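Hi L.,

You mentioned the student needs an example of a multi-chain input paired with its predicted structure. This one should do, with 1171 residues in total across all chains.
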Amino acid sequence: MKAVGMGVRKKDAMALTTGKPVYVADIAPEDCLVVKLLRSPHANAMIEEIDVSRAQRVPGVACVLTYRDVPKTRFTLAGQTYPEFSPYDRLILDRHLRCVGDPVAIVAAETEKQALAAMRLIRVRYQVLPAVLDAQEALDNPVLVHPEEDWHALVPDCGADNRRNLCATGEDADGDVEAELAACDVVIDQIYETKANQQCMMETFRAFTRCDAYGRLEVVSSTQIPFHVRRILATALELKKSDVRVVKPRIGGGFGAKQTAICEVYPAIVTVKTGRPAMIIFTREESMTVSSPRHAMRMHVRVGAMRDGSIRAIDLHTLSNTGAYGEHGPTTVGLSGHKSIPLYTHGLKAFRFHWDVVYTNTMSAGAYRGYGATQGLFALESAINELAHALHMDPAALREANMVREGERMPAYYGETAGSCAIDRCLARAKDMIGWDEKYPARTMPNGHVRAVGMALAMQGSGISNVDTGAVSIRLGDDGIYNMSIGATDMGTGCDTILAQIAAQSLDCDVDNVTVHGVDTDTSPYDCGSYASSTTYVTGMAVVRTCEVLRGKITRVGAQLLGAAPEDVCFDGDCVRRMDSEESVPLREIAQAHMTAGVEDLSACESNGSPISPPPFMAGCAEIDLDPLTGQVEVVDYVGVVDCGTVVNPNLARVQTEGGIMQGIGMALTENPEMNGRGRTVSNSFLQYKVPSRVDARSVRVAFESSYEQTGPFGAKSIGECVINTPAPAIADAVYNASGVRVRSLPITAEKILLGERE
Amino acid sequence: MATYQNYVMAQSLEEAYALNQKKSSVIVAGNMWLRMCGLRRQTAIDLSGLGLDRVEETEDAFVIGAMTPLRALETHDALNRETGGAFAAALAPIVGTQLRNTATLGGSVYSRFGFSDVSTLLLALDAAVVLHHRGEVPLAVYQQEPWDRDILTHVRIPKGVRAGIVSVRQSKTDIPTLVCAAAMEPGGVRLVMGARPARAMIAAEGVDPDAPTAVFEEITQRVPLGGNLRASEAYRRKVAPVLLQRAARACVEGNHDD
Amino acid sequence: MTIEFTLNGRRVTAQADADASLYQVLRALHIASVKCGCETANCGLCTVHMDGRAVLSCSVPAARVQEHDIVTLEGLQEEAKALGGCLADEGAEQCGFCVPGLMMNVLALARENPDATDAEIDAYLAGNLCRCSGYMGQRRGIRRYLDSLKGVRA
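Structure written out for the whole complex:
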C-alpha cells in the first residue's frame, strides 16, 4: 500500500467545492450578537472622555464596552508557545490608543445595522498625542508607544525595552566580519526595504463565541492556533484555561495572519458579559488596516567576496517595524538573517547578524508566510545578484561556487548541519527549465519590450527546533478504520490529508481508511498549531510514532487472538499473520475484539518535537517582459524548483509552490501597503491593494528535486513558507537586467523603474 | 455601505425624475461604486425597469441606454467593428466579467470618475449624453459639469469613428494609473487623457497619428496632471506622451490586448 | 420590503431592508456557498447567476431581483461535483473559500465560450481572486472540466 507520494484529493475537497456550510460564519448560531468595534482615528491618543449612554439606548444593543469594562491583565495576541517572545503589551481595550484603528469600544447588538447605529452615537474626546510613524526614528524617540508601567516581556533575553520603543535587539556572529570584509576584493554595501504586506486570505478574521452547557466559553474561530487562542483568551479575560474551549472548523486561508488571535477577544468578552452568543466578522477594510501584516524591514547588507567569486563575509543589520504591538516582533526578525546567511555557508569565513525591532504608532505586524526570511532573502539575494554583476559573473555561477552543500555545518543556522540538501540540483533544474544560459541576461523583442531573467535561492525551516510540538492520537474503529485526531490546523493547505497519507503509509492501509476532523481543544491532542512550516515535519513525525505504537498494540491483540506470541506474528495492514503458518486474523476482527469486553484499548497518542529544523531549499527563476517606455513589468514565466525532502502529496506540494510564488510575485510587483502622513493605512481594500489576479502572471512552473531528510516522516521536510521567498529578489534582478535600474525597495513599481537611475 | 429607507423601482422616467429632484434621493445604476461610498439617503431610485439596457443603432450613431452593462458593450460586434475594437480594449481590464455584467454605462458616465476608462474613450469618440430634462449634451461639456439631479438616459456615439485606447495599471485589472484614448477625425486624431488622476479631458485635436514623439510630449505639457496612490505626477508626465502616441497608432492599426 | 424571486428553481419570498444586497438576502436564506471577500466588488466570491448571467451578489440590490431568476451553487450540485472533482484532482481548491464563486463564473464561461483557450479562461475569470492556489492548478482543473464537456458533446 503506497500513500506517501500520491496526489490524492484533499479529504475535504468535495465539501469545499460543492459549497457546503463548513466555515465559521456558516455554522454560527442564528441568534449571535453582531460585534463591531469603534476604532481610533488617531495614531497616538488618550481617551479623555467616552460617553456610551446614547449608544446603549439604541434598540437591540446588548452591550457597549470601553476600557473601563475590561480586565487589566496585559497579554499578547501572538500565537506562540508559552512563554511567548512577544511582550505582554495589550489590553482588550486600552485608554491609550497606539495606532489608527486601535479599538476604542466594543458594541454588540442583535443586528449589524443596530450595532453600527450605536457606534455612531458613541461620543469620544481624544487627547491627540504626537505619533512616531517612521521606524527609523523610533528608537529612543521621546514619543513612547508603550509608556505604561505594566508592560512586560516574558523573555528578557530578547532585549526588549519599552522606555526605548524597543521590542527586541540582539546579535549573532561567527568570526571577525570586519576584518574579513576589509580583506575582500569586492564589497556590496546596500540597504534594502520591504513593506508590511497583507496576507489577504479570502476569509477575513472571524470567530463566534458562546457559553456551553457547562458554563464554559466555547470559541469557534478561523484560526491557525486553537491551543494558543485558548491560553490567550484565558489570560486576557482572566479565566481559567479549563473554562475555555476552542474549535477550528474549515478555514478560508491563513498564511500566518491567523497565527495571531486578531479577533477572538472581542466576541469572547461580549459572551462573558452578556451570556449571549456573539460573532465578529472583520470587514475587508479591517483585515487590511488593523490586522497582522508582514513586518516592514530595512536591511543593511554587506557582502564581501574575492575576485574569483568566493564569498567570504556577510554582515546584515535588520531594522524591523513591529508597529504598535509586539506580536511576533522579536521572532520574525531572527529569520531575516538565520534563514538567509546560511545559504552561503560554503566558503564563508565570518558573518554578523544584528537587529533592532522597534515599536511605532502603526498597525501591529504579525506573521506572514516566510516570517522574516522573505524580507532577509530579498535583501541578501539581491545583494548576491549585485555582487555577481560587480564581479562580472553569471549569478548562477556565483551561487554554484558558494551555496551550502549537503552535510555542511551552517554556523549562521544555529550550528545545524544541512543533513538533507538538494539546492544544487534545484538550481541546475531551474536554470534548465527557464533556459537560463540562452536567456541571461536580456534580449530586446520586436515590439521594443525587453525580456530578461533573474534568479534567487531560498531556504526556510521545518518547525521551530526545541519548541514546536505536535501530538497525534489514532484509534482503531469498527471494520478496521482509523480515527485520527490532530491538533494541527488545516487552513486549506491540506495537512489533514497529508497527515492521513503518512498514517496510511505507516499502517499499510488506504488513505480513505483514515478519518480526520477539525481541531477542538477539548478533544484534540495538543499541537502548537500550523505555523513555522511545522505540520508535515513535526506533526507528521508524531503520526509515524503514533502508528508505530498502534501497530504494536494491534499486533499484540492479533497474536492473542491467534494464540501466538507477539514475536511470532506480523501485521501487514489487513491482517495479523502467523509467520510460521497460513493462519491470520483480519484487522476488522481485531477491531471488533477490542470492542467486545476489550481490555486493551487499540489507540495510541504520541507527541513529537524536534531538536533541529531541517531547511527546505528552493531555486527560483523569473522571466519578465519590461516595457521600457512605461516601466511596466509582466512576469511571463516563473520557474520554482523545490527541495522539500520527500514530496508527500505532489499535487498539494505543487499548488503550495504555485500559490507561494504568486504571493511572492504580488509582493514584488503590485502589492503596495501605504499609509498617509497621519498613520492611516490607505491601501485598505482589494481596490487599493492589488493582489495578483490570474491575468497578472500567466505561467508558473514547478518541479521538485528531493533530498531525503532522515529525521522527517518518510524523508519529508516543510514546503509552505519557503516557496514565497524567491520572486522578489529574482524579479528585482530581472528588472535590473532589463533596464539597468536596481530597485532595492519593494514593490518594484513601473514608476521606480521608469524614473530610476540606470546603474 | 450605502443606506436607504426606500427603494423605488421607477415605473417611468417622469417618476424617476420627480423623485430625483430631492436631495435625499439617489439613482442606483450598477451599484458598484455607490454602495461603497457610505452614502445615506432616504430614497434609492432604480431605473432597471425602464428598458434602458439596450444598444440601438441609427444611421449615424449608436444610442446606448444608460443601464446597459459594460459587458454588453465589450462584446458588441458592431460597436467594436466600427471602433477598431476600442470598446473591448477599454472595458476588458475592468475587474472581471461579473462586475462588467452589472456595472452600467450610465453609472460610469454620470459619475465622471477620475479613473474612468469609459469616459476617456467616449470623450475621444465625441459622444453625447441624453438627459431626461435637458436633452442632448455633448460629453465634452457634461464631463466638466458638477453632479446634477437630471437623469442620464442614453449615450449617443457617432458611427464610423475608429478609436484607440491604451493604459498603464498597477496590475492588469486595476483602475488605470493613466489612460489615453484617440479617435480618428477628418483632420487628425482627437486625444483624451484620463486618470490624470482627475476627470478625463481632451488633450488635443487634429493631431497627425504619425507625428513624431516630440508632438505628443508637447501636448502632454499642456495637460494638468497630478499624483496619487498609484503614481506621482512625474511618472504620469513621463509616460503620457508614450500612451498618447500609442493610442494614436492604435487608432490607425487597431487595438490589441496589451 | 418583501421580495419574491426564483432561487435555484423554487419560488421564494424574502424580507429585506431597502438597502439590502442580494448577497445578504441569500445568506439569510442559508445559502452558504455565497461568500463575501471584500467590500469593493473586486474578489468574485459572491458570484451567482441572475437570469443566467454571472453577477456579484454583493452589488445587486435585493429589490432588483424581484421576479428574477437566481441560481447559486446549491442549485447546480451536479455541475459542482464534476467541476469540483476536476479542481480537487489538482489540489487546486485549497482553502475553498473562493471556489463556489469561481465555479459559478466557470459555469457561465462554459455556456458562453465552451471552446475557451487558456488565455480566454484567465481573462473571463480575472475577477475571481484566489490567494491560495496561484491560479495555475485552477486553470488545469478548469481546462480538464471544459474538455470533459466536449467529450459529452462529441
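You could point out the following to them. The domain at 2-74 of chain C is CATH 3.10.20.30 (Ubiquitin-like (UB roll)). Helices of chain C lie at 22-28, 77-88, 99-112, 118-124, 136-153.

Best wishes,
N.
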